[in-house]
Structure formats: structure tokens, C-alpha cells
């Protein structure tokens, strides 16, 4: 996948940590049991802070579909929450969040859910998986 760096640690299956997180987020989303924000937060939590309770993912429940109003992409909101969960330093968290937003805009032009889904939600699984993978990549270098 395009966000991966060379020399990223790989697990026993040969997939990098970022790929693992991306694949898990995609699976959560495709299952229909989680929307974009929940899927990103859950996958990152499972990889970087597995001891945190699963109920933590409920914090993201209001962020799907652009927080119900169509504004910020839920995958980006979930990634922002995941960064805050894992990174305890406020300045470092803010810097990684800014980097995530810039990356997303470079990839998809906008972070607005309404604009991203103007032609339907078929790309939401892509946004979810790629954002989760990018968050994992950012967290690896913190």
C-alpha cells in the first residue's frame, strides 16, 4: 500500500503493522458492525493499546457520516481519536493529527464527508483502511 515505508517491522504473516491495522479496520467496516470512525479507532487501539477496553470504541459512535452532519470524514475523526488515545503528549498528538489531516487532503483533496461521498459511499472502505494504516505509520515513528 502506498503509505508504507521501507524497513517497517513485519509480523509473522509478512504484513507490516500498518497493513495489519488497515486490514483490520477494513474488516470491521465491511462487517457492517462499525462505521468508519469506530473501525479506525478499534483497529489502532487493538494494535497499539490492546489493554484498553473495547467499550472505548463507543466514543467514536457519533462520528460516522461526518458526525451526522456531513462535515469531517469519520475515518479522519477516528484516526484523530486513536492518536490521542496512544500519544499522551498533547503537542505530539497535535502534530501527528495535523500530519494525518495534511496526508488525507493530499490523497483525497478534502476531509469533508459530504464532498467525499457526493457520488455514494463506495469509497468509504478505502478511506477507512488507508486512514487506519496511515495512523499506524504515524504512531510507529512517534
TrEMBL record:
Q: Name one Pfam family in it.
A: C_GCAxxG_C_C
Lineage top rank: taxon: Bacteria
Put simply, this protein is called C-GCAxxG-C-C family protein
